[in-house]
Amino acid sequence: MMTDKEIIALYFKRSENAIEQTDVKYGKLCHSISINILNDTRDSEECVNDTYLTLWNKIPPKEPNPFKAYICRIIKNLSLKKYEFNHAKKRNSAYETSLDELAECVSDGTEASDSVEFEELRTAINTFLSELPEKKRILFLRRYWFLQPVKGIAKDYGITEKTASMRLARLREKLQQYLQEKELI
C-alpha cells in the first residue's frame, strides 16, 4: 500500500492512479463515514466519488497534511450537505441522533453562535479531547466525528450497547462540565 506522500505525489503528477490508490487506502473509511450519515448506499457512493473529484481538483496546489484528516473532512462535509438536501423536512438517521446527544452538552438552549463564538467552542472541545485517555477519546470521536452507531462501537469494544451508551453519556457529562468551567455554556 502506498504512503500518503506517494499518493499526493501522484495527484501532483496528475496521474489517474492517484484516485485508485486513494480508494485502496481510504475507500472503506470514506464509505463508512458517508453511510453513517446518509443511511443510503447510492448517496454514499456518490459522495465518495465527489470526494475523489474534490481531491483531484484541489491537489495541486494544496498539499494536505495529514491526508487522512483532509479526506475525512471532505467526505463528511459532502455527506452532510447531501443529508441536508435529502432530509430538509425529514428526521431519522444516526447523524441526527448523535448530534442531538452532543447538543445537550454544548448548548445552553440558545443558538451556538449566540452563546459562544464558534472558534472558542472548537478550541475548548479539542483541548477537552486531547486531555482524555486514548480509549475514551477514540470512543468519543467514533460516535461524534465518524458518526458510528453505538451498536457497532459496542461490538468493536467487546461491550454491550448499554455499556457503550453509558460511557458516551459520561463523556458528554464531562464535556458539559468542562465547558461550564470554561464559561462557554
From TrEMBL:
Domain RNA polymerase sigma-70 region residues, every copy: 26-81
GO MF term list: DNA binding; sigma factor activity
GO biological process: DNA-templated transcription initiation
Gene3D superfamilies: 1.10.1740.10, Winged helix-like DNA-binding domain superfamily/Winged helix DNA-binding domain
RNA polymerase sigma factor 70 region 4 type domain sequence ranges: 124-175
Keyword set, alphabetical order: DNA-binding, Sigma factor, Transcription, Transcription regulation
UniProt cross-references to InterPro entries, sorted A to Z: RNA_pol_sigma-70-like (IPR039425), RNA_pol_sigma-70_dom (IPR014284), RNA_pol_sigma70_r2 (IPR007627), RNA_pol_sigma70_r4_t2 (IPR013249), RNA_pol_sigma_r2 (IPR013325), RNA_pol_sigma_r3/r4-like (IPR013324), WH-like_DNA-bd_sf (IPR036388)
Protein family membership: Belongs to the sigma-70 factor family. ECF subfamily.
Protein name, UniProt field: Sigma70-ECF: RNA polymerase sigma factor, sigma-70 family
Organism listed in the record: Anaerobutyricum hallii
